[in-house]
Structures are given as structure tokens and as C-alpha cells.
Specification:
It is built from one helix and 17 strands. The protein is mainly beta. It has two domains: 86 residues, Cupredoxins -  blue copper proteins (Immunoglobulin-like), CATH 2.60.40.420; 80 residues, Cupredoxins -  blue copper proteins (Immunoglobulin-like).
């Protein structure tokens, strides 16, 4: 009777170890990217080769997951933002990848442009006195938040649209709110993708 109990216990332990191992492998081979308003979350996802990535549309608008890049515009221009009465004008600026933003301080007070951390673009301007300006060429598609540390609550936003350049590796077509799209990355490499409905969201999968 003791031998039977011991054998049963060993069998159960081996079964649990086997199931635990299977569960871990399954988790490693499946990852999720959430589609939010004008961004993919996370914007960079590193996975093992053989992983199936699921994109879930958590936004209220339709999106696509299209492999390729959002390229700079062929004819970039300057876009102006004035700092006047402790406000950015315009507060939200739409432009194309490759365009250059010029901030000009029209106030008597000192101002500064500092991009929020964790974005693809890192930028901190020198302090700007009255009638001084600073420029930045926007080389990435996306939504970029910035602020003035000299004036609490003074914030601005840049929405940069790129020129679609799909490479044909995968394309979800339209993904409605609440729907999903899956693709398995069997070959190691870096795969960039974007949403061709908005030409703002750009992200990448790194398969090891």
C-alpha cells in the first residue's frame, strides 16, 4: 500500500511539472499589442522567433497593422508655434515626418521646450528669452507631448504623419473596435509596421 501511494505521488508530481513547463512555453510564444488612440502599446515588443503576436483594437476607431515604414514627406516645410500669453499657439500641431517645428517666444517671460520622456524623440531646448526661437526636425511618425518647465501646466502636442511605404509582409486590413489580428514571427529580425488609416502610429516587433 505504501509503494502504491509513493508511486501515485511521484506520478502526480511529474504531471504537475510537465503541465507547468507546457504553460510557460505557451506564454512565451504568444504576446499582445494593444491598439490605442494613435499609438500601439507597446511601441516596441521583443519576442522569441516563433511567437504569435496578437493585436487587439482597444480604440473606438478602426485601424490596420501593416508591415513597412512611414517615410518622411518629399517636400518638408517649416511649421511655426508661437509662445504668447503663456500659451502655445497652436497647442496641437499636425505636420508630416520631415517637417521642422520652430518655436518662437513672444512673451516677456522665459520659456523652454522639453519633450516628455519615453518618446522616440528626445529634445530639450535652451531657455528662450523674448523673440528667441528654437527648431527641431521631426523624423518619426507619432504623437509627441511636450511642456515648458518654466510655466507649470503649459503643454503642447505634435502629431506627425508619415508617407506609407508597405513592404507586403503582413497586412491586417481594417480591424474594427474590439477585433483582433494575429501574425506569427517565425524568422528572427526587426519588423516595423504602421496603421495606414492614420499614418501616425508606427511600431516594431523584434524577433530573436
Amino acid at each position: 500500500m505504501t509503494s502504491v501511494r509513493s508511486l501515485s505521488a511521484i506520478t502526480a508530481a511529474l504531471f504537475l511539472v510537465s503541465c507547468f513547463g507546457c504553460g510557460s512555453a505557451s506564454n512565451r510564444l504568444r504576446s499582445t499589442v494593444f491598439i490605442r488612440t494613435l499609438r500601439f502599446d507597446p511601441s516596441t515588443l521583443t519576442v522569441d522567433a516563433g511567437t504569435t503576436v496578437r493585436w487587439r483594437n482597444s480604440d473606438t476607431a478602426a485601424h490596420t497593422v501593416t508591415s513597412g515604414n512611414l517615410d518622411p514627406a518629399p517636400d518638408p516645410t517649416f511649421k511655426d508655434v508661437a509662445i504668447l500669453d503663456s500659451q502655445f499657439s497652436p497647442k496641437e500641431l499636425r505636420l508630416r515626418v520631415g517637417d521642422t517645428v520652430r518655436w518662437t517666444n513672444r512673451d516677456l517671460a522665459t520659456h523652454q521646450i522639453v519633450f516628455a520622456s519615453g518618446q522616440p524623440i528626445e529634445f530639450t531646448s535652451p531657455p528662450l528669452q523674448e523673440n528667441e526661437d528654437t527648431t527641431l526636425q521631426i523624423l518619426h511618425a507619432g504623437v509627441f507631448e511636450y511642456q515648458d518647465p518654466f510655466t507649470p501646466g503649459l503643454t503642447g502636442r505634435i502629431i506627425a504623419e508619415g508617407v506609407p511605404d508597405p513592404d507586403g509582409q503582413f497586412d491586417s486590413g481594417g480591424i474594427s473596435p474590439g477585433q483582433e489580428f494575429e501574425f506569427t514571427f517565425n524568422i528572427p529580425g526587426t519588423f516595423t509596421y504602421f496603421c495606414k488609416f492614420h499614418n501616425v502610429e508606427e511600431a516594431r516587433i523584434v524577433a530573436l
